[in-house]
Amino acid sequence: MSAHVPLSPMVYLTIRRGKRAGQTFSAPGPAVTIGRVSDNSIVIDDPQVSRHHASITFEGGQWVLRDLGSTNGTTLNGQPVTTPVVVREGDMIGLGEVVVSVQLVGAAGGEETAIGVRPPAARPVPAMAQPVARGEGRSWVWPVIIFVLLVAALAVTAVLAFLLLRGPVTPPQVVITSPLNGTIVSPGKEIEVQVVAQDARGVTRIDLWVDNTLYASQSSPDSRGQASFAVVHRWMPSASGSHALLAKAYNVNGQETLSPIVLVTVMQPTGEVSQLPSPQVTEQPASPMPADTPVPPPPTNTPPPPATPTPLPPPTPTVCVDDAAFVADVTVPDGTVVTPGQRIDKVWRLRNVGSCTWGPGYTAVFVSGSQMSAPPAVNIPNTPPGAVVDIGVTLYAPAAPGSYASYWQLRNAAGVLFGRRFLVQVVVPAPATPTPIPSPTPETYISFVADRTGVSPGECVTLRWDVENVAAVYLNDSGVVGHGSQSVCPTTTTTYVLRVQLRDGGTTERSITITVNLPEIPKPTQIGPPDGSVFEHYPRAADFYWSEVSYPGGVTYTIEIQYGTPEGTDWEPYQKVEGLTEPHYRMENFIGALNMGRWRVWAVSNVTGQRSEKTGWWKFQFTM
Questions:
Q1: What gap in Å lies between CA 243 and CA 212, rounded to an integer?
Q2: Does residue 15 sit in helix, strand or coil?
């Protein structure tokens, strides 16, 4: 004997008339769409069926059929469907010229159980009669029959024992408290979907499903779950038409349950928000079907006589809409530090941004977090739309150290939560522990000196350092001992850096700059050709010579040659050659006959780049 447990909603359609007669389709509830394109729950590839033809939704314990503006129309038992109508087991739905029979799982009055669904009537297959000789085969028939009966009895006993020992299955309770079933909203309006789940063993997660698609999921901040867990999801409808909202809650044992369906219609309104009357729903969560229970195909029994469609009531607009906005924390800002057990008088300032007046029956209620010994609800003073009100609640800080947050929300006289949540958050610090007196740290000592800071080229300097109570010492990035000296002989002005790594991980530096005092670089002396030389040969080439310069680190030479008019005016650059290592330069192919030329030279230090004084200009001329 099987216990009757409601199954998850499921729709089976069998084509009775059409080019695919006999084919059966199935889709899980609570909202099933039927059409010719692939984004429908049930796809019927027939030209009589529109792209999005009709929908069947599970609402308040019954299945409701709607036409979705199809081209060829929808009928129920031969009657045109122009408004939402209730559909029952065995009804015939017409999709244009295509007719399908309906089997529904999860509808009121069905015969579905946790063990299985009423199987469809099977057509008996006639067996071929086989002649049997008189008296043959009868000796083994009765033993086989007895063996089969014993096996069947043992199987029944095992099933009964399993059902008795596993105990009752009590999944969590879950309900969508806002919006109400049948709400109508304008396109582009964001909707707050408020869900509350309860289970003494702890609710661990709540999922929100929109049109059979997982839209959002929120887990409890406590891994052990919460006896009462409330969440708020913001949903923006993506398209006009009817949308089915469904919440699924899970407890710590992995059990899950579904909320009653909430239908929201998106359409151009005559007012801001209206609601359709909600069917009377007993908020009992549907138990999930065991994973190992097979679902047989839909029945093929003869459908009952056509029934007259039952239309749903027309929409009834509501008078006002509840909504609230947080303004300020009047007392106890978030993060306030309190002592264990301290009284906390929290006051929030809220504004009525809805169109309803908050009056008798309106309360602020605790919804999640740490209640901190506060009452579960406090009354709200009479507040008209647009007005601001201060709402206060008294809490007491927990004894254990930590950060605690208590979340609250407004609730109207109908018991529906509305507006955004507001909170009080406090910190209970850990007890102060005595601060140990640190042992005195030896004082760091650093000394870095040189016996002199100015030298001539070729002279040396001695650097000395004394460093104590540090981690490491480096002279120009080379590790050295704490007490030492080093002789250095810089050829140019140089800075020496003593870098000290302290014991606390920090670093400090000392530096000394040794200045090398260099003498002036001697000026070269021009040797030849003599000033005013005239050359009567071709090609126009000449060798220039000057005296060698001696200087620490060595020098290079730079020669500059210019050309001008025969009269020795209008001088222009011809050559400038740098980096000559010898006191000699050969010029090739001077510009033009009869042109006047001149040259000069100077020396440059290889070490410092310092240059000597330039020589005077010596002139020359080619006659051909």
A1: 10
A2: strand
